[in-house]
Amino acid sequence: MASRFLAAACHVSSITLSAAKTTEKCISFINQAAKNSADLVVFPESYIPAFPVWSAIQAPTQNHVFFERMAKESIYIDGEEMHAIRDTAKQTGTVVSVGISEKVRYSTATMFNSNIIISSDGEILVHHRKLMPTFFEKLTWSPGDGHGLRVANTRFGKIGALICGENTNPLARYALMAQGEQVHISTWPAVWPTVVPSGNHGSRPRYDNVAANKTRAAAHCFENKCFGILCAGHLDEAALEVMSSLTEKPGYMHHGLTQAPHAVTCFLDPTGAALPGHIIDPESGERTEKKDLCVEEGILYAELDLEKCVEGKQYHDVVGGYQRLDVFNLKIDRTRRKPATFARKLTTGF
Description:
Elements (H helix, E strand, L loop, with lengths): L3 E8 L7 H17 L4 E3 L11 H4 L6 H10 L6 H13 L2 E9 L7 E8 L5 E6 L22 E3 L2 E7 L6 H8 L5 E6 L20 H16 L2 E6 L4 H9 L4 H10 L5 E4 L8 E4 L6 E4 L1 E2 L4 E8 L45
Parallel strand pairs: 1-2, 2-3, 7-8, 8-9
Antiparallel strand pairs: 1-14, 3-4, 4-5, 6-7, 9-10, 10-13, 11-12
Helix pairs in contact: 1-4, 7-8
Family: Belongs to the carbon-nitrogen hydrolase superfamily. Nitrilase family.
Organism: Hyaloscypha bicolor E
Protein name: Carbon-nitrogen hydrolase
């Protein structure tokens, strides 16, 4: 296993509500990162085909067209989009983590907020469905199950991932810690609206998205003594225009999205502190030091040295020497849940 490797976090916008075009963009970014010697390439929450941020801006009664488009453009785990991404991971020799809105073949509109970790051989190592959709996400996605609470054993170490608000769930985080996780991926939407500013005095303060996400990720890194990769989405003008065009009040949608607090893409070390990163100009190849990406699209790179995950375990190994296994006992059910179990009818020969 290589103790040092290069990670790439893609702070990118979906081609909103187009699975095919967003998959093409995903593949182009994997190729770009691989060209720059990245070993691990990470994409944001629900990158394909979009994150349903519209549900935070307007009432459910106004979002039927969005739900229909989301159901149409969400992708199957065994569908052509995933096969194309898996093929690219194999061709480039990279480990890929990608967020998708997953649809299933037993329903016309059941969807899950999923994250997939793919090996450098193109195999799916972890297929995780978000345990509980957060806040307005419940209008789009169903609750997942514990099947995906696993770490991926890769040639670049043990990699785990949780989606957005799951990083607030200490038991979900501990489930990954207890499997020796060395690199923790946390994925996030581009923005997180809690209010639509109107300019009136007395309005609620905006949610501090960057601080909230960094706090959760840093806590996990410190407790687990692992590296953290925060990978958030981006909303470009084309995405804003598509979402605005599907509403009866495009100006209100556009205003709500542009005023919402952005999320950040960055790296953390095993103490929870910021890990220096850099960007690489795709045209000139020029490298520029950069601590994070927030308002601009791009790929942030950082070198991770897994040997740095060891020292902190002297102080707090919360799944080993700093644990009281005689006091605490966590049971995790990793059964993949299905809507029904059909018994096979036995034939007697009569």
